[in-house]
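Handout, page 2. Input:
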Amino acid sequence: MRFISTRGQAPAVGFTDAVLGGLAPDGGLYVPQDWPTFSKAKIASFAGLSYAAVAAEVLGAFAGDEIAPADMRAMCEEAYASFSHRAVVPMVQIGPQTFIAELFHGPTLAFKDVAMQILARLYDHLLGQQKRHQTILCATSGDTGGAAVEAFRGRQNVKVVTMFPEGRISEVQRRFMTTTGDANIACVSVQGTFDDCQAILKDAFQDQALRQAVDLAAVNSINFARVAAQAVYYFTTAAALGAPGRAVNMVVPSGNFGDAFAGYVALRMGLPIKRIVVATNSNDILARAFSTGRYVRGTVQPTISPAMDIQSASNFERLYFEGVEREATDTARAFEGFAKTGVIDIPPGALGAMQAIFTGVAIGEDETARTILATLNETGELIDPHTAVAVAALRHVDLEGPTVVMSTAHPAKFPEDVAKACGVTPDLPRGVASLAGRAECFDRLPGDAETIKAYVRAFSEG
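Output:
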């Protein structure tokens, strides 16, 4: 399996280099040169397998012969043993044909654990083979950072620097990052938005001197292995509901578009998906893009679903690349221009291809809060604000057949907002309730790329 850059100016690489490199040297994102596909019989067989077994099949399709099947299976077994539910991603029914897939049973109570736990083991395996050490730089809108810290803490071959926007994530989200005390972890509170953190991340990866000095790596969803790992739960949920015999709709709360694009990956691999509904909060760049054909960066608005407070969805570049039939020159021109102007006019053919699969829906704050209360009253299920955005989106679309809502975080990560919406304060699950009593350790820095790059270098070399 070979991977190419969406911008076409970097050489094709294997799975190992795509994982450990993260971002391509030309600033593009890696995608498979050819999409691997599963037969209908193979997809049907997933209904009788453990989550770890399905994950080994999906990830193995991308790793090819670079990781032995037995090694991949062992890593997946170990990764998903860290989850509190034996099903890893169980489902609950909230309507006649509507189900919630609970993606929050990992160590940090968010869907990012599903990918990050296996990614850490892939890094261990691949770096160990090459006798390398890397520094991971991570930008987070709330959940990625905590999942990365938990997955990589204490590992010998990796140091992690995670950036989060100051005052724009919940206390529980912050404490998952800042209370570990492990020497290979550094946390930075950035004076700015998540988009500022993401821009600093991309600047760092385009600084070739820094990349070489610290062997810089990324575990944001710009890393294709993250997206591939998230595609697994599309297969497991759909197979449980009758796929491939029945096509399934997916509703995904989205900010950076990695989770929704993972559904597209599953679709390209042969999973019958009727429609992927991309549910955004008032930071609605994706919803506007799918409805109007203009991808226009706005000003980030703080909301009660902060992991989605994003106005530059990095994984959209991958979808654009596919939409323009893999024209790398077009893709590079569009996204280099977007970095300067904040606008992309999606070509009509590409927009039509996107709209054949994706529907965008934007949900306001009042509707999000009302949906938390209504869902509790109607089903007895307590959901977090991000999941509420997706559940609310169901009222704005007409879907036929079984539908899965991706529930991306445990409500206990947002106790104040959930309690304000419905009058019930969610309890932290056992094992993480001690977060509030732990000492925090993090640094505050301005949202300046050069300052943070110097910090990364000093931490890596220290």
